[in-house]
Amino acid sequence: MDNWIDGKPVSLSPLESQPHSPRYTASSQRDRESLEVRMREVEEENRALRKQLSLAQSRGPSHHRGNHSKTYSMEEGTGDSESLRAGIVAGNSSECGQQPAVEKCETIHVAIVCAGYNASRDVVTLVKSVLFHRRNPLHFHLIADAIAKQILATLFQTWMVPAVRIDFYDADELKSEVSWIPNKHYSGIYGLMKLVLTKTLPSNLERVIVLDTDITFATDIAELWAVFHKFKGQQVLGLVENQSDWYLGNLWKNHRPWPALGRGYNTGVILLLLDKLRKMKWEQMWRLTAERELMSMLSTSLADQVIHWNSPKKLRVKNKHVEFFRNLYLTFLEYDGNLLRRELFGCPSEADINSENLQKQLSELDEDDLCYEFRRERFTVHRTHLYFLHYEYEPASDNTDVTLVAQLSMDRLQMLEAICKHWEGPISLALYLSDAEAQQFLRYAQGSEVLMSRHNVGYHIVYKEGQFYPVNLLRNVAMKHISTPYMFLSDIDFLPMYGLYEYLRKSVIQLDLANTKKALIVPAFETLRYRLSFPKSKAELLSMLDMGTLFTFRYHVWTKGHAPTNFAKWRTATTPYRVEWEADFEPYVVVRKDCPEYDRRFVGFGWNKVAHIMELDAQEYEFTVLPNAYMIHMPHAPSFDITKFRSNKQYRICLKTLKEEFQQDMSRHYGFAALKYLTAENNS
């Protein structure tokens, strides 16, 4: 079996060149010496190649080496041909011009092992860099655990990139294949799963590029795919040598990181000829070799170690090209993924039913309608990344657990720490951010002791697209991804009273929420003071109301929104009491997780909660006010959407039109009982 080091074939049979094999006799010493000579030759070749690359780099990153004389713009899909991997150039770039071209519409197959929350986040940057440069259809084969599959399946489904196919393979089912190998590497068992790809991937798949999640491409992946044309005879693997001196084991006394000659091979980028590997009985070959080596090595200390660009320390690595690599990585980290939804001209795409349905819905809209943009937003598919940060929570076993649900944009990040201090239970948040803002949020969260100490907060990124804030879509995303039987539908500007989480769990039992259709109302108040001594009891809150430090929520601008809560009765109430729905009622409620979603037609400011409460009433939910619960709205600058509502007449006209259409839909859906909503609206 032959391997490739920097594009040069090297004979290295795993069954014959193992120093610790029982068949390792005196004659093997000569083989070892011969191999050492060959390794030194390879070192010389590598030094010469690095010198050549250094000269090319000094002429500027926009020039291709070898026979490429044309410089491509970013719009044409090609950039510098350096591969961002600790200075590693995959294949032999100096010979790229001699490689046979990849067929225009040939599908390129890529396999990636991805497990957990962090790897699911890292792989997005890799995919962006591949999509940016690619000119061919892509088929990603993702060996993923349950967490990564949930995250990435949603991401790709909502990304809707043409000519990209995704298949998942259950990493948990593969654990038994490699779990018998003792392993000290930080990547754990998942770092070894590349060994079983011949068995895992479809039997009719002939070749595949295998990538680590922390790769960033600086050129079209087709250049790497074309290297398969250089394989000859029994050559079945494409690898490059590790470039870091760390692997030589001479950085300090007794430094022995690598049980091999020289730097060893880097498995961050692998080319696999699967059909030939299967014929060579790769499965038995690697197992036999591993068993034999473990007799003396006891465990594997490394798996797929390379530069990891998501580590601050690795971003400061000593490498003369580090600024180029670092800037390229950071560029794709914050690059707008929506711009990668471009068609491949001349290549037929597989029919995608979601895309076809979307186009059909949009085609039925009248573009001359003055409210077209409002109507269009209802059908916009926003790219969504669930569980952007680590999440770990098991709901309470007594079936009383409640998740706080809210949505926010970048200008409300400062509320997160305060909410976490007031609410110790699980939280589900949908954040409306751009790609660059998502990275800012990541840095903010990782720098916060309060947020990092909480593993029961689910952060779901909904990426920006369009001109409106899709408030109800965000609420639906946050609602959909809770693991508790109940949810508290709040807003990010509110701080719940201390102890509300436990109080709500007791109320759920007391009011038999499991078997009745109830919406438990948490009375809402507000302060106009940015610094507030938060009331620690109902008595303290009532005192602050009397002093004018607190007010009932929106009493001075939108009394109807919360008037039905009956604050006068609440002041003296000691037991829960029922209230009736009234026009424009929009309380904050605790409901079962199976309650209806919010209506997506309402975006930005206006009627987004009112419509939801109306639907709860139509479905015969009973509204019950909790006597010892409260929440307080904290002051903030007006949102962009409320400013548009106040200043733009057409905005207000369209909102009124959408309200009327919603009420008509309610009448069609709920019949005679829904007529009261039309009557109430006319009387208000």
UniProtKB/TrEMBL annotation:
InterPro entries: Glyco_trans_8 (IPR002495), Nucleotide-diphossugar_trans (IPR029044), Xyl/GlcA_transferase (IPR051292). GO terms for molecular function: glucuronosyltransferase activity; xylosyltransferase activity. GO terms for biological process: protein O-linked glycosylation via mannose. The keyword Disulfide bond does not apply. Residues 29-48 have a biased composition (Basic and acidic residues). PANTHER family: GLYCOSYLTRANSFERASE-RELATED (PTHR12270), XYLOSYL- AND GLUCURONYLTRANSFERASE LARGE1 (PTHR12270:SF48). This is LARGE xylosyl- and glucuronyltransferase 1. It comes from Cairina moschata (Muscovy duck).
